[in-house]
Amino acid sequence: MNRLASLLAAWLLLALPAPAQEAATGGVAWDAVDPAAQQLLEGHKEGWSTLPPERQHAMADGAARWLSMNEADRTLARERFQRWRELSPEERERLRQRWQKFRDLTPEQQEALREAFRRYKSLPAAQRDRLRERWEQMSPEERRRAISRRQGAKPGTYDKRPCPPC
Question: Packing angle between helix 107-122 and helix 125-137, nearest 10 degrees?
């Protein structure tokens, strides 16, 4: 396996449940890693026991996920990983923060956001561009009011916290 595949396996799906067999430290014993995943992660074999347990879990789970993907999914994962690598550290941190804010939402709020995004993506490109330009021209106060209207809140009862950067 090439180095990119190894990096992708380590990067993929950091939050899956841990395998049943674990080392005494709470990590994943190298021998408990599936042989196909071991082959994918072979560059990490020598230092495996020195990795933090959560890193061992993440890498073992990522390798298992990589191996379960079809070629189209792997291609998409490679493209996304490449885009991630091209981001500046500031852009990466901003995305991490936005992801955490999304994960902090209730399942209902997450689904509502997904549905709104699906509707947005179904619009013609010109209409999406107009909406994006309009949003960028709004002040933070105007954005909060727009969000409140969209969520059906009573006027004046919207969240007064600063609007997150988009």
Answer: 120
* Closest residue by Cα to residue 37 from 74, 78, 68, 82: 68
Cβ neighbors of 105 (< 8 A, separation 6 or more) are 113
pLDDT, one tens digit per residue, over 84-116 is 999 999 999 999 999 999 999 999 989 988 998
Distance of CA 104 to CAs 32, 38, 139, Å? 33, 34, 25
Give pLDDT tens digits for 114-161.
Answer: 998 999 999 999 999 999 999 999 999 998 888 878 776 544 444 444
6-22 CB burial, b ≥16 within 10 A, e <16: bebbbbbeeeeebbeee
Q: Alpha-carbon distance 69 to 72, whole Å?
A: 8
- Tokens found for residue 106: 């209730």
